[in-house]
Structure formats: structure tokens, C-alpha cells
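Q: What residues go here?
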């Protein structure tokens, strides 16, 4: 394996030209008041800015993005009606002003939770799709691991301060990215005003706590949060001209100002993304076998700099299948993403096939994600 890797990395590269680079140096990042922050290009997944982004933090009500994601993915119909329990109505902190005995659809409970940041609504959502809060928190933590938020552990659905309830700015960006991938969540967090209507009673309007909506060009969500332990937090999403950015600011003295500055800086630098999907065909070996990506490759066009896809092919073509090279996404001379290239097995001669069937099977190279 080491010899093969050495051959791969020593082979000639094939370049696919991209737009010409600009000579202007990148603008320096803005000064932020927040203790932790992160800016993510949600299309490429590339982190454009990070400040203490991997440090554990109390997330306050930004927790509710994961609550919503778990609820929407639970399979419970959003139109199903649930009765608000005494326990849900009594949860302290920010309120959607649900009353015990009132009946709402799961969709309306999500609206009260995400727009008004109602802790009562978050508790009602959790206990509508799981037997109890503890079971729901277990689902939250499983979902966090599944989407790659590995520094996250939650014990409640609303974000009130508790021991062992934490995340990081990086993980919140992943959670927001996954949550915004759900059309119903995306609709709710982008709404400035909606109406909650319990069965048999008049509806009442609720307004979104996120003041970027309607005041910042392209803003379309996602969630605010405030507690004494967490300080003022914000996860902000905005889209302009095909670029989708997610800004996370935690314990901010000026969370909206920090988010605006980060997003402005990001939009000034970022002009789009280049994405190659897992399994995408990137060429052929000399014997005609296809070369495909083992993992997704993506990067952002920043400051007008060139993006190149560099294909480094193994000298022996990987014999009878497996890792046959690597693909590197380059910004200038800097590699920003890498993926192995896989090829199907080369057919054995007919007279060897009976013997090959008796040999032990090798490890599946599709299970290898890096070299």
C-alpha cells in the first residue's frame, strides 16, 4: 500500500483550467465582539472564517435548530394535532405562550419554537415525537453524530443551561446546514410573521426574534439564543447571487453587528462554489476502466483565485481494482480538499477465474476515505 501511494503521489498531474485569478489581496477579516464565531460556505462546506470555533460553548436557544431537525426527520406528520401538556406549558424562559390543554399541529409547535423561541413549544415538540425529553435528547445526540457535529451533546430540546449541554460554533454551522436542508424548517425560519391558531380558539400573530430578516439583504434565517451562561448567540443564514453563507456568533456583545460584518466580508470574497459529487466520473485508466471519486470534493471561489482539479493517477492502474489515484482540489498551489479515486477490478483471464474464486476477498477499497 505504501509503495502504491508513493507511485500515486509521484505520478504526473492532469489539470482542468478554471477562471483566471485576480491579483488583489484578500480583505482582512472583520473585528468581532463575539467570543466564538464561524463563517461557512454552505454550498461547498468550506470554512471561510473561524474564531474559537471548536471550543465547547453553551448554545442557548440555537439548540432548537437540532430539535426541529429531529422532529421533521422523525416521520411524525406535521399536520398531526397534539395537546399541550401541563409540563410543556410550565417550562420557564422564553415563551410561545402555549396553554395547557390547547391543541396545535406539530407544524405550529415548530413555528412557535423557531420563531418565538418558545421553550414551551420546544418541550411540546419533543414530547410529541418521543416518549419523554430524555428519549428525545438521545435522538438529538444520534442525529448530531450522523451529520458530523461531534462536539455536541444536548440534554434538553430548548437550550436552557444544563450540565453536559454544549456544542461549538463549528457544530452549530453543521446543524444549521442540515436543518436548512429541510424545506419546512427553511420556510419557518425565513418567515417574519405567522399566526398560531389552537383548535377552537382565535389565532394570534407571532413575530420572528431574528431581526436580520427584512433588514439584511438576502437574510433567510436561522435562530437566535440568549441565556446568562451562553450570552447573546446567533446563527444567521443569507443568500446572494447563488452564494449561501451561514454565520455563527456565540457570546456576542453585538451579535447582529458581528453577523452582518462576517456576512458582508464573506459575500465580498466568495463568488460561488465548485462541487464534484461522490461517485462522479473523472476520467479513465489506459485500459478503459472508469475513475470515480470516493468522496465529495468541493471548494469556494475566493478573491477571484483559480480552482483546479488535479488528478494524480497510480502508475500501475491499481491492478485488479481499488484505489487508483487521488483527486486534489487546488486553490493556487494550496490543496483544499482530497479524495481517493476508485476503479473497478480489471477482468481476470478466463483460465484464472476458477482459481480466483477460491482466493480470500480483499478489503473493499470503497470503505477507505483517505490515504
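A:
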Amino acid at each position: 500500500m505504501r509503495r502504491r501511494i508513493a507511485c500515486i503521489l509521484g505520478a504526473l498531474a492532469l489539470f482542468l483550467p478554471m477562471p483566471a485569478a485576480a491579483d488583489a489581496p484578500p480583505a482582512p477579516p472583520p473585528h468581532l465582539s463575539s467570543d466564538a464565531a464561524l463563517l461557512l460556505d454552505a454550498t461547498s462546506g468550506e470554512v471561510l472564517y473561524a474564531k474559537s470555533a471548536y471550543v465547547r460553548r453553551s448554545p442557548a436557544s440555537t439548540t432548537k435548530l437540532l430539535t426541529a431537525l429531529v422532529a421533521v426527520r422523525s416521520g411524525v406528520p406535521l399536520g398531526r394535532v397534539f395537546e399541550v401538556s401541563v409540563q410543556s406549558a410550565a417550562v420557564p424562559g422564553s415563551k410561545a405562550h402555549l396553554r395547557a390543554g390547547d391543541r396545535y399541529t406539530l407544524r405550529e409547535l415548530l413555528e412557535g419554537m423557531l420563531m418565538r423561541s418558545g421553550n414551551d413549544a420546544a418541550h411540546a415538540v419533543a414530547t410529541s415525537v418521543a416518549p419523554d425529553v430524555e428519549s428525545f435528547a438521545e435522538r438529538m445526540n444520534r442525529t448530531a453524530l450522523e451529520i458530523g457535529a461531534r462536539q455536541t451533546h444536548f440534554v434538553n430540546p430548548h437550550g436552557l443551561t444544563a450540565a453536559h449541554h454544549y456544542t461549538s460554533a463549528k457544530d452549530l454551522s453543521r446543524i444549521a446546514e442540515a436543518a436548512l436542508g429541510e424545506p419546512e424548517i427553511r420556510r419557518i425560519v425565513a418567515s417574519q410573521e405567522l399566526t398560531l391558531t389552537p383548535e377552537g380558539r382565535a389565532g394570534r400573530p407571532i413575530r420572528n426574534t431574528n431581526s436580520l430578516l427584512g433588514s439584511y439583504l438576502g437574510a433567510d434565517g436561522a435562530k437566535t439564543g440568549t441565556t446568562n451562561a451562553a450570552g447573546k448567540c446567533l446563527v444567521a443564514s443569507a443568500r446572494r447571487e447563488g452564494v449561501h453563507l451561514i454565520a455563527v456568533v456565540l457570546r456576542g456583545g453585538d451579535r447582529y453587528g458581528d453577523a452582518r460584518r462576517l456576512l458582508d466580508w464573506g459575500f465580498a470574497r466568495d463568488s460561488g462554489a465548485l462541487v464534484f459529487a461522490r461517485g462522479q466520473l473523472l476520467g479513465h485508466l489506459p485500459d478503459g476502466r472508469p475513475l470515480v471519486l470516493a468522496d465529495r470534493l468541493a471548494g469556494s471561489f475566493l478573491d477571484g483565485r483559480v480552482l483546479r482539479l488535479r488528478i494524480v493517477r497510480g502508475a500501475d492502474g491499481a491492478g485488479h481494482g481499488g484505489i487508483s489515484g487521488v483527486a486534489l482540489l487546488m486553490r493556487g498551489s494550496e490543496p483544499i480538499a482530497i479524495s481517493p479515486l476508485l476503479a473497478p477490478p480489471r477482468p481476470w483471464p478466463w483460465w484464472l477465474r476458477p482459481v480466483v474464486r477460491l482466493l480470500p476477498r480483499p478489503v473493499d477499497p470503497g470503505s477507505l476515505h483517505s490515504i
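A: Context that may help when evaluating the design: The radius of gyration is 25 Å. The longest helix spans residues 255-269.
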